[in-house]
Write a structure and sequence with these properties.
CATH topology of the largest domain: Spore Coat Polysaccharide Biosynthesis Protein SpsA, Chain A
Largest sheet: 9 strands, mixed
Mean pLDDT: 92
Number of helices: 14
Helix content: 40-55%
Number of strands: 9
Structural class: alpha/beta
Distance between the termini: 24 Å
CATH superfamily of the largest domain: Spore Coat Polysaccharide Biosynthesis Protein SpsA, Chain A
CATH class of the largest domain: Alpha Beta
Strand content: 5-15%
Low-confidence stretches: none
């Protein structure tokens, strides 16, 4: 994976628009078209922002949120580790209603470990309502070094991961979602890199989306992956340019999670990786090869944001990350607040489209208490400063126009 330039970002945007509008093929992968299109799009968004700014009348009255969703910021019951490190790698697999995928997932993990034996697989069965538990009881003995943890109540993805972390014994850990797969030999390849570079805190490889096994069959065949390029980084700003914000597709030193757990009861839980875990890491290595196979789920979480009122989850995750950073004694500087603010603004805009302005104003007031005493302006670019101004002015329409 290489750094993504502005031209590449514009091309992704241009191709998406061209395909959605069913434009002729001449507009696909057309850099000039993409650059012009994105410039027009930016001009449109800026124009909307300034229009909303001109016509806005500030209301200082306290407004009660319409769709308020409470959250209890209590510590996880699974903090700490119950076992000393006794194996090199723990593979953590939460399992919920995946009877159609769990066997494929586990088979791919075993194949990803070909020739490597110093590991454990921890599957957390999270009170599935389908046949997942019965299937796991039936097949678990077929897999070497597999621990099956059975929850008595549903904990959600974060809770299942946290429980597995507590009972893990790996010096390194990795997460695999139970409807996804790994490329053949990828964990063996990383294990060799661990032997060569045992001071690395996080290893990461690339991922590929797929809808069926036919899409990725070449990556599941008996061949060790070719690592085309290795990038070793220690500066956090450089790491952010490379690292994906997902929990999966990475191998972590377990110690990074000593005082950190995923936010239980919330979605968008992977924000803890980008905002806290990556900042705790002192060294990072990117392996330029596809290792994680991410299944495209047409019924995924993005299709139920409104029905489940998940916009508030993004808001709470922002506060959770700040609390976790403080608990981990991280250096909370201008760069940290900048990333937290920009992520909060853009993701909140995308994930609160259904909420009443009163709910957004409630979030603005709460976020303002986080960012009010921070001199953010010196770390923000021109557009981000407009985002901050709109938030502090409580101008929801202007904020929605510029937070993209």
């Amino acid at each position: 994976m290489s750094l993504i330039s502005n031209n590449q970002k514009n091309l992704i945007f241009g191709n998406a628009v061209a395909r959605k509008c069913k434009l002729p093929n001449i507009f696909i992968d057309n850099q000039l078209f993409a650059n012009i299109l994105y410039s027009v799009y930016q001009a449109y968004r800026y124009s909307k922002y300034h229009l909303h700014n001109i016509t806005y009348t500030k209301n200082n009255n306290k407004i009660k949120p319409v769709n308020f969703k409470p959250y209890d910021f209590k510590p996880s019951q699974f903090l700490g580790f119950d076992y000393e490190s006794s194996v090199k790698l723990s593979i953590i697999v939460p399992a919920y209603n995946v009877e159609n995928y769990i066997t494929q997932c586990l088979d791919s993990i075993v194949n990803a470990l070909t020739g490597f034996n110093d590991y454990e697989i921890i599957v957390v069965e999270d009170c599935s309502t389908d046949n997942t538990l019965a299937l796991l009881k039936e097949i678990s003995s077929n897999y070497k070094n597999l621990k099956l943890l059975i929850n008595q109540k549903n904990l959600g993805l974060s809770g299942a991961r946290n429980k597995a972390l507590k009972y893990s014994s790996g010096h390194y850990i990795t997460f695999v979602d139970s409807d996804d797969m790994l490329s053949y030999g990828i964990l063996t390849a990383v294990a060799k890199k661990i032997d060569e570079h045992n001071n690395i805190d996080i290893f990461e490889f690339d991922f590929q989306h797929y809808a069926s096994e036919a899409d990725v069959c070449i990556l599941l065949k008996n061949r060790i992956p070719l690592i085309k390029k290795i990038t070793l980084l220690s500066n956090i700003n450089d790491v952010y340019k490379f690292a994906k914000g997902f929990a999966c597709g990475k191998i972590y030193k377990r110690d990074l999670f000593e005082l950190v757990r995923f936010p239980e009861g919330l979605y968008w839980e992977d924000a803890i990786i980008s905002n806290v875990i990556l900042r705790k890491a002192k060294t990072y290595m990117h392996l330029d090869t596809i290792g994680y196979l991410y299944r495209i789920n047409p019924n995924g979480i993005s299709n139920s944001v409104k029905a489940r009122n998940l916009g508030y989850d993004q808001f709470y995750v922002t506060k959770y990350c700040l609390n976790a950073a403080k608990q981990s004694n991280l250096i909370i500087d201008g760069d940290f607040y900048k990333r937290l603010f920009v992520e909060a603004s853009i993701f909140l805009n995308n994930r609160t489209f259904y909420l009443d302005d009163a709910d957004i104003l409630y979030m603005f007031n709460e976020l303002d208490t986080i960012f009010n005493d921070v001199n953010l302006e010196t770390n923000l670019n021109a557009r981000q400063k407009l985002m901050l101004k709109a938030m502090r002015d409580k101008n929801v329409a202007a904020w929605r126009s510029i937070a993209f």
